[in-house]
Structure formats: structure tokens, C-alpha cells
Design goal:
GO molecular function: DNA-binding transcription factor activity; transcription cis-regulatory region binding
Number of domains: 2
Number of helices: 11
Helix content: 55-70%
Keywords: DNA-binding, Transcription, Transcription regulation
Protein name: TetR family transcriptional regulator
InterPro entries: Homeodomain-like_sf, HTH-type_TetR-like_transc_reg, HTH_TetR, MT1864/Rv1816-like_C, Tet_transcr_reg_TetR-rel_C_sf
Shape: elongated
CATH superfamily of the largest domain: Tetracycline Repressor, domain 2
CATH class of the largest domain: Mainly Alpha
Distance between the termini: 58 Å
Oligomer: single chain
CATH topology of the largest domain: Tetracycline Repressor, domain 2
Number of strands: 0
Largest sheet: none
Length: about 240
């Protein structure tokens, strides 16, 4: 790459970042449904035709913001998991709780981005295939945590009702073929409840209900792990 090409590439990265930053400000002020390329261009002092060279449509910009949001919450969860593993490689319940707490912390710090990916759908927008892998990062990390616990004999398998067995087998085949179907079902339960808890807090449903939310969530996250079959490490 020549010096000129390198400068152009850096400029493109900087302008793309500025566009996304302004779009996030609009998300916070107006919501995703009112995101406008023309408004973003106006705030940045750009003509609309110049901005279209970076994002040809509002949906392209939304997709970039969605992928960024999924990637940042996923990265936060992965860092927390890695730190918990370093602290105690065999305390799988602690690894699970660390992931859950990282998701909550990110959501509280970035409520508008959380709402973009876990709130109401944006009218007229359909997420493309590009969002699937980033969206799965947290879920896959929870599955990986349960897998490590299972391999380390740290899982107490929950009972599986007969009428749920076919769905459990399908979930296991799709999500974790190496894990028992009962565990796959328990993980989906826990994953849904985790984001339900976080959404209740971010969207104000706990107002005038739960006061000590840190303690409440820490207990809830541990219970979710236990319900997913992850047992605490025996203490010496």
C-alpha cells in the first residue's frame, strides 16, 4: 500500500467512525426508527451524497451499528469470562456469573445500543445474515461455559419432561451436539431469562420495585447458572 493509499484508508476509517458516533447520538436522542442519513450528514457538515459513499442506505448504517453493539457486548462478556477463568479455572459457576454481570454492566452503560439489539424491532428494517455471528457471541459463551463444566463433571442435569424431549433433541443438535438435550434446554431457558432480567432493568421495569439491583442481579445470575445445571466448585 502506498502512502497515499494508506492516508485514504485511515481517512475512511475516521469518517466511518464519525458517522457511526453521530448515528449513536441520534439513537439516544430520537430512537432507531427516526435515524436519518440526511440528519447525520447535516450534523457532520457533509453533503448527503458524500455520506452515501460510506453507507448507501439507512439500513446499511443500522446494520453497522447493530454489529458493533453485538460485538462490543460480546467482547465485554469474553473479557470477563477470561478474567474469571484466570482467577479459578474450575469454578464454572463463577465464570457463568462473570459473563452475566458483564452483559448487565454493558447494557446499563449503553442503554440505547442495548435497545437497538434487544428492544423493539425497527419498523421497516430486516437484519441481514451479517448480524447472526455477532449476535451469537454471548449465547455461545454461555454454552462454552456449560460445556467446560460438563466436561469437568460440574453439571447437575435438570429433569427433562417427556413432552419436551423432541424439542430438546432439536436444540441440542442445533446448538451443542456434544451436550445432553436436557442441558441444551436449560441453557436456552437461562439465556432468555438473563436478557429478560437485563431488559427489565434497562427499560425501567424495576423502578420502585427492586432497590439493591447489584445484589439482586448477582443472586439471580447465580441461580440461572444453577438452573442450567452448573454446580459451584466444592471448597476445600
Amino acid at each position: 500500500m502506498t502512502t497515499v493509499q494508506g492516508a485514504r484508508a485511515r481517512a475512511r476509517i475516521e469518517i466511518t467512525a464519525a458517522i457511526k458516533d453521530e448515528a449513536r447520538r441520534q439513537l439516544a436522542a430520537e430512537g432507531a426508527a427516526k435515524l436519518s442519513l440526511r440528519a447525520v450528514a447535516r450534523e457532520l457538515g457533509m453533503v448527503s451524497s458524500a455520506l452515501y459513499r460510506y453507507f448507501p442506505s439507512r439500513d446499511d448504517l443500522l446494520t453497522a451499528l447493530i454489529i458493533d453493539a453485538y460485538d462490543t457486548v460480546g467482547a465485554a462478556a469474553e473479557r470477563a469470562h477470561a478474567a474469571a477463568v484466570r482467577a479459578d479455572p474450575r469454578d464454572h459457576l463463577a465464570h457463568w456469573v462473570a459473563v452475566c454481570r458483564a452483559v448487565r454492566a454493558w447494557a446499563i452503560a449503553h442503554p440505547h445500543e442495548y435497545a437497538l439489539i434487544y428492544g423493539s424491532p425497527v419498523p421497516g428494517y430486516t437484519a441481514p445474515q451479517d448480524t447472526v455471528v455477532p449476535a451469537a457471541r454471548v449465547a455461545l459463551l454461555l454454552v462454552a461455559t456449560a460445556r467446560e463444566a460438563y466436561r469437568d463433571e460440574g453439571v447437575a442435569l435438570p429433569p427433562l419432561p417427556d413432552d419436551l424431549a423432541p424439542e430438546a433433541e432439536r436444540l441440542a443438535a442445533d446448538l451443542a451436539p456434544d451436550l445432553p438435550p436436557a442441558l441444551a434446554v436449560a441453557l436456552v431457558f437461562a439465556w432468555a431469562q438473563l436478557f429478560g432480567l437485563v431488559s427489565f432493568e434497562v427499560f425501567g421495569q424495576f423502578n420502585r420495585v427492586v432497590e439493591d439491583r447489584d445484589a439482586f442481579f448477582a443472586t439471580a445470575a447465580e441461580r440461572l447458572g444453577r438452573e442450567a445445571g452448573i454446580t459451584p466448585r466444592p471448597r476445600a
